[in-house]
Task: structure prediction
Amino acid sequence: MVSCVYVESSIKHHERTLRILARFKNTPVVEIEHHGEVFNPSAQNFRLQKSNPALILAHKNNRHALPTPEGYGLGGKHNYYFSHMLNCLYDCRYCFLQGMYNSAHQVIFVNYEDFDEDITQICAQHNSEPVWFFSGYDCDSLAYEPVTQFADFFVPAFDKIDNAWLELRTKSTQVRQLLKHEPCERIVTAFSFTEQHSHDKLEHGVPSIEKRIDAMQLLVDAGWPIGLRFDPIVYHDNYQTSFSNLLETIFATIDANRLHSVSLGAFRLPKNNFRQVNKLYPDEPLFAQNLALNNGIVGYPLTQEKEMMRYCEQQLLQYIPAHCYHPCEWHD
Amino acid sequence: MLIWVAALHCEAKPVIDFFRLKKSHDHHAFDIYQKDNMYCIVSGIGKLNSATATAWIAALHRQSRSIAWINIGTAGSESYAVGSAWSINKITDIESGHRYYPVPLVNSQLPTEHCQTHNQPDIQYHSQSLSDMEASAFFGTATRFSSAELIHCIKVVSDNSDTPCSRNKSEVSQLIQQNIKAISEFSQALTLLNQQVAQMGISEPVWQRFLAQAHFSQTQKTQLKSCLRFLLSQGDSIDSLMASVAAAACTNASSNSNSQSILSCLTQRRIDLSRNL
Result:
């Protein structure tokens, strides 16, 4: 439930704002000048807010699409990310978004047309070379689709740019809007999974594994390319069996030959994010595990991480062709 | 801990009476009423008084794990009925232009509204908001000591364009008194929220007991606090942890090694407990 909707004055009459507000008729609306007034102050408790966040409707003024951090991507040469939202509907304890912002409120930037303009310009700069755009960096791409209608706008927008590739990354089952459109081979919906035990313990509010597999299959049946993201792999005594079971469950339904890409990565967080989330959730066992600092990243000790990656990789490659496998390797 | 801040005694009285708070004779800068973990301070009218009282009582309770705050008082309005009560979701300081946004986290029966804070009584009523003389200073000061989710303002309309401001103290008390049920429910919900925050911390006496076991560097103190917060959240008792710490401290003669041994012991326990999430 949304506790309050904040609306920036400059977009209070925007068509998308009015449509979203119509969904929250009984929710108090507060007019603001800039989303930073509500979102940025330091005297906020992310954990308290997360249980009942507000919605902020805002205008993104510039830097609509940015180059991805080093190592982020699927092997493409030109990689960018863009965020129509800040913060995620779900509450996954391993996610870096928990330590990212002072506030847990959901920000939606309603000026999609400006994002589209920047994306078109960036693609033009790279001539006809493929350019990848990742939309699930600061939020889940599809989880809030009924409110944002993000895919409904951006699928046609990407379809018309011949060298633009889009990754929609999600843990949701919100594929209904996608299914209304003709499939586009350059738009990949990538579903993130952790095995059952980690899902139960760490992914609060995320749909069940089975429901997400069903959503994937709907896309496959309609001819959409899909991806799998096993990131993060989290250690526990039974993680190997549990990961193998997850693969068995997924590939009992999904034809591996229909996969665009599969990535794999062990749990890791930048040092500052780790410090922040550990402060927010001092009672969280994930952050109490045997972790080490390596090149500014907190993760499992190197030998343990290698062993985890090797095991999961071996299991995965029993199902998928090697060419679509992309390990997330962040060590030197 | 919940602290009420009211400008006038007649605004505080319904809260004092409802919660049966008793006047404290320990302090003289401001009138303070107290019972158990609840305080009410009477600040005097205006921003400076409100900010001073808020900061002063926060300093008195600086060792408290978490403080929740409610500014209770009256406000003017162009059209809202005299006696209607509001939870404030936006505060604008008219003189400085600063805006504050109390976080609407507490489920309450009170409707929400914008409040403008003025240096002088405002008789030019504004249709879009209430008018008062303390909220901005109270909120801006309280956020130095607590997170915004724990800081709220409740305003009861005392005057509007049809009804001038009453100078009768008992009438002012009556306006707040008639909303005391909704106000007390609001405070209960806020107290529950505050308890969530307080539970995440370690009380000062417990923390001092652990610190007394060895000499810890600043970095080690951070590590120690992190270990203790996790282990206590997992059900370890303070006494059992103290016993482990004392045993670890005995294994080394020098003070520096003591701190290392204690941290190693607690860290290992933490890792063991977290293996299976």
Observations:
- Residues 180-199 of chain B form the longest helix (20 residues).
- The interface with chain A takes residues 89-90, 99, 101, 103-105, 111-112, 114, 143-144, 146-150, 193, 196-197, 200, 226, 229-230, 233-234, 270-271, 273-277 of chain B (CB under 8 Å).
